[in-house]
Amino acid sequence: FEEGLERTVDWYLANEEWLQDVTSGHYQQYYTKQYGTQ
């Protein structure tokens, strides 16, 4: 479990731009633009 948690945290730290886009709402805006509201 601890190894998996550590690897997960490392992945998020290595992908900060993706994390910022997802948590800022940018991804939701993109999703709405591409697929509309449903």
TrEMBL record:
Question: Could you name the domain of life of the organism this protein comes from?
Answer: Bacteria
Matching Gene3D superfamilies: UDP-galactose 4-epimerase, domain 1 (3.90.25.10)
Task: Write the protein's name.
Answer: dTDP-glucose 4,6-dehydratase
Q: What is the lineage of its organism?
A: Bacteria, Pseudomonadati, Bacteroidota, Sphingobacteriia, Sphingobacteriales
